[in-house]
Amino acid sequence: MNFHQKPTTFVASVAINVTDLKRSLDFYTRVIGFQISSQTESDATLTANGRDVLLTLVQPERVTPKQPRTTGLYHFAILLPTRQSLASIVPHLVNQGVQLGSSDHLVSEALYFADPDGNGIEIYRDRLPEEWTWHGDSVEMTVDPLNFEDLLTKETVEEWTGLPANTVMGHIHLHVDDIGRAEAFYTQGLDFEVVTRYGHQALFISDNRYHHHIGLNVWNGVGAPQPAKHSAGLVHYTLDVQDADKQQQLAERLQAFGARVDWNENILITADAAGNEIHIVY
Hints:
The protein has 282 residues and is of the alpha+beta class. The protein has helices at 21-32, 83-95, 148-154, 179-189, 244-257; strands at 10-17, 35-39, 43-47, 53-58, 72-79, 101-104, 108-114, 120-126, 134-135, 138-139, 168-175, 193-198, 202-206, 214-217, 233-240, 262-264, 267-271, 277-281. It has one domain: Roll (2,3-Dihydroxybiphenyl 1,2-Dioxygenase, domain 1). It is globular. It starts with 9 loop residues before the first strand and ends with a strand. The mean pLDDT is 98.
């Protein structure tokens, strides 16, 4: 099962505000290894394969720094195709002076850091689905220490020359203001299924039994305010769905739920109750 291609509904790309486009482009190309797909004075699109846009950087007018304790982006997650590629980026990031966090989630192995504006980034690799442990409809995930010794000795560490062409946007993790309202929106409005809960603090949802396409948490506080429109952070993220029929089905579900339903040509635009904007395409 490929959890990041149709018919699965998956996060295809993310758009974020940055305060200095030139600085951010240097970071995302030199430090992470994206390629520039297009660029203007105020925005740029980034790709791993020269074709599919995974990340859009926007420097809005009157941009302000990222605001703490608000809803919005916790991190977006770049999924590498192999454990070897994860091993190879570790010394590269260290050599670039990146301050790394890390974790073994049982379903995946992950690195965590932030861009110059404080936008959270995860880079990870998945274990095979047959290695995941399910308890009914819930997948077992944890936050264990990443075994760097095993990663860097069992895998061939090669010089990092950029993101592999088959890198994808693996998932997005969002700050919301109310877990219950977020769960209702994403399950009733967008047809996702809950796969893991961490009490009343965090929730993980997916399509087709992936370990998660979207993470939701209230770690910035229940009732956290929405960030200013022009502050650094999330602009929107894009969900790719199977076809026009699925897109229309979601429009009808969202309308029945009472959520925002707007159209920009063939893009369906909505937002969760915490103000996280979503573009739905096919």
